[in-house]
Design brief:
Endonuclease, Chain A; elongated; 434 Repressor (Amino-terminal Domain); 6-stranded mixed sheet; 2 domains; 12 helices; alpha/beta
Amino acid sequence: MVNRKDLNPESSPQAAFGAQLRSHREKKGWRQEDLAERMEYSSTHMSSVETGRKMPTLRFARSADRALGTGDLFERLWREIKHGVLLEGFSEYVGYEGRAVEIRLYEIGIVPGLLQTPEYARVLADSAVRRGAISQEQADERVAFLAERQAVLERERPPMTFVVMDESCIRRHIGAPGVMTAQLDRLSEFAARPHTVLQIAPFDMGERRTFDLPVYLLTLTDRSVLYYAESQTQGHLDRETTSVVPVLTAYHQLQAEALSQAASVAMIEQLRKGTP
């Protein structure tokens, strides 16, 4: 233990990964060589990741989860490293999103990520670069990450996906006219799928709108439900029943007040054709 390097897990997501790896390894009573053998990596590679000198890969993270029996802990930590521009809690949410059997979304102002075209997503990312909010590299990662998330809708058995969008999502112009037209087409195509429901919450709902911030709800295979909500600067993931049930109830109330899917698609088509 003479060469043991102290780790500060709060210094960076990469250091947090290494600290968690060491902690779970030592709980097993394993040396670095023992874990390296189980994960099919060299002990030198293991030491470099554990001490934060080397970036873990997705393959490494998943291998660590299998060897240590940690569920998807290290995969989530890897996503924190790779997608550090995301709000707190969102990378964890995405880990659950990929395994959900039901997804319920409510969005204000912009089309939900799962429904965005690559061009629409690129305009948003490039705008953040121009504002100095993120780097060009982070913008590229953000767009690529979104494509990874959207794969959940293309699974052999896709989740039942309910989407309620505030009317502002379709009336707010993003990018050139062609970008918005293609995005509206994507929404109509989404609504036509057998495992989806798309509704617009019109402006004239007024005070009957139950949420003032975006809300995402997931139903997992064990029928447990979790929700993720975010503000401009902070995200929050919660799966406590006492917190989730009121949010789920409010979502159902929102669906009841929103336009039907047929009326929602009709509104989208009117906008696409340029009629008020």
